Amino acid sequence: MKSNKKRKKNIKPWRVEGSRVLLEDRWIKVRADKCVTSDGVVISPYYVLEYPNWVHMVVFNNKNQILITKQYRHGARDIFFELPCGTQDVEDGSPLEAAKRELLEETGYRGDFILAGETSPNPANHSNMIYTFLVTNLVEDSQPKDNPSEVLNCKFIDVERVLAMIDEGKFKQALHISSLMLGLRKKQKSRG
Questions:
Q1: How confident is the model at residue 9 (pLDDT cuts 50, 70, 90)?
Q2: What gap in Å lies between CA 118 and CA 122, rounded to an integer?
Q3: Residue 61 gets which letter from DSSP?
Q4: Mean pLDDT within 103-121
Q5: In angstroms, rounded to a whole number, what is the distance separating the alpha carbons of residues 134 and 155?
Q6: Cβ proximity of 165 and 171 under 8 Å
């Protein structure tokens, strides 16, 4: 009789024997690595995308509604519903500072921030992390800043409607769905 047990493999990090930068600007660095697996298999080139860290905000008003943005995304050449989000700039001291700055710039709101989770957008070839924050106790501070490359609309939507939008394929940004789940879970836990 054959056993259904599979032999566990010893998983180890790859060794990087060389690296060259193919493209670099303020938004992305594309790197080609020469890697060697723990079994001695050479994988070259292995492309790595180095992005700055990203921040996502799951923002609730006092009616338990979530702030959703709507904007054009050129990579997909479509308009997407998303969470308020942004990039951690070099000047930002931390992901929290980046999240506060981005929320104020995009929406004009300030609030209380709690880290809901830290995730990897694609560990196969992205080097950055996503920091998701639950934001409550909102205060409208200012008008959103104009940014010609980032034209967006914001509105508060009931949680049930946002979940229905996911089911209907209307809210389809995968990374934002993940962050939304982290924010909802953090909010649920914070209630006791």
A1: confident
A2: 13
A3: -
A4: 97
A5: 17
A6: yes
